[in-house]
Design a protein that fits this description.
three-stranded antiparallel β-sheet, 22% strand
Length: 422
């Protein structure tokens, strides 16, 4: 959540951030009123509680009728204290509920607008001209079937729609991508991690995924656990309730995990193949740092994502995501989108988000520095989302005979060419 002092001292800045997101400013008005009520109930409680404490000393010194009057007053005060305490708790809970519904303050530097209002920052590489090469490109599913790499029919039979098996070279390709991604991340100074894919409610809520993304989350009610949609969730909670030394910043982690998403609201979209699925594996970069260093670290994460796509020899573009398309926790987000030949457009394969102190305030992650103890800043960025990366590699590297040429970075792990099975 945001710093309550900003709400109190500059509510217009919060309203402006809501407008940039296309979200209702009425929430800010509700929060201002709830904060005033919360503080007034605290004052009321402290006043009657203070009188109650002082009365105890007077009773010890009083005699006769005066003592009886004071004792009678204690009964009245006792009830007033209970009522004031209950009012304080209710006001605090109401304020906390509203604060958790308020998104992070979208950066003025983010383009204003909705999903289609992003700004293209850079385009790298030139998409192949398959017509000039004399053949029609196959899509990833047809190529995957020729290579014996993807089996969606049995995925649907075993688990339902939007599930799949990676088989043969498909499985080997994911393992090679995982090994390459984790090796590169380690060379960049990230600590490799394999986190749990099941987390408790605090971890899920603390990262902001029980807000606008709640419909996409798988919940195991019997166990009180949630399947993560990204390893950002367990990695954000990794240092919850801790105080970290500023000298240890930034702390960088690269986590490999499965990711589970209901894909609510995507009915009928990208149903063919493995582009939009309920489960996929991913290597995620996660960083803890100070709020002063967060913007520079955001650019570094984007740079590493670009290095990765360059190593995979994929045509891609970098976009600055519009404020109305940001997640609850982020103030700014960059997406890298790879060219998908059979779709004739760029599609997202990675993103980098600056969440400033939003998650750390919820999860109580703090930094001890020269200026005292303050909330940490958190950032996250996709290094390799396996299914979409496999799609991009298959379609961009395909040859007329259905074979697929791999980028040089994968040759030591998987060879130069994937060939159709007999």
């Amino acid at each position: 959540m945001i710093d309550a002092r900003i709400l109190r001292e500059d509510p217009d800045a919060v309203r402006a951030a809501q407008k940039r997101r296309g979200e209702p400013v009425e929430l800010v008005d509700e929060l201002v009123a709830a904060d005033e009520l919360r503080r007034s109930t605290i004052s009321s409680y402290e006043a009657v509680r203070g009188e109650q404490k002082g009365l105890g000393k007077l009773i010890a010194q009083a005699q006769g009728a005066d003592k009886q009057d004071l004792l009678a007053r204690t009964k009245v005060l006792s009830q007033q204290v209970k009522e004031a305490e209950a009012a304080q708790v209710d006001a605090a809970e109401d304020f906390d509920r509203l604060m958790k519904a308020l998104p992070n303050l979208a950066s003025p530097e983010a383009p204003q607008g909705g999903e289609e209002d992003f700004v293209v920052l850079d385009t790298v590489g030139t998409p192949r001209d398959f017509a000039a090469e004399g053949f029609e490109p196959r899509d990833h599913l047809e190529l995957g079937q020729l290579l014996g790499a993807i089996d969606t029919e049995r995925g649907a039979k075993v688990s339902g729609a939007r599930f799949y098996f990676l088989t043969g070279v498909g499985a080997q390709l994911e393992l090679a991508l995982t090994q390459l991604a984790m090796s590169k991340a380690a060379a960049w100074g990230f600590t490799p991690m394999i986190p749990p894919a099941l987390v408790n409610e605090r971890a899920m809520e603390g990262t902001g995924f029980l807000g606008q993304a709640a419909d996409d989350v798988y919940h195991l009610e019997k166990d009180g656990l949630y399947l993560v949609g990204t390893s950002e969730v367990p990695m954000a909670a990794y240092h919850s309730d801790e105080i970290l030394d500023a000298e240890s910043m930034p702390r960088r982690y690269a986590a490999f995990s499965p990711c589970y998403r209901r894909e609510a609201g995507s009915y009928g979209k990208d149903t063919r193949g493995i582009f939009r699925v309920h489960w996929f594996d991913k290597v995620e970069m996660f960083v803890y740092t100070t709020v002063e260093q967060a913007a520079e670290e955001h650019q570094r994460i984007l740079g590493w994502e670009r290095d990765w796509l360059d190593a995979l020899e994929l045509p891609y573009r970098v976009v600055d995501v519009a404020s109305g398309d940001l997640g609850l926790s982020a103030i700014r987000k960059f997406d890298c989108e790879a060219w998908i030949p059979t779709q004739g457009k760029y599609r997202e394969v990675s993103s980098a988000s600056n969440c400033t102190q939003f998650q750390s305030r919820r999860l109580d992650i703090r930094v001890r520095g020269a200026d005292g103890i303050t909330p940490a800043a958190t950032l996250n960025g996709t290094l390799c989302a396996m299914t979409r990366t496999i799609i991009a590699l298959l379609e961009n590297g395909q040859q007329e005979d259905g074979s697929v040429r791999l980028p040089a970075a994968l040759h030591p792990l998987l060879g130069e060419v994937l060939r159709p099975i007999a």
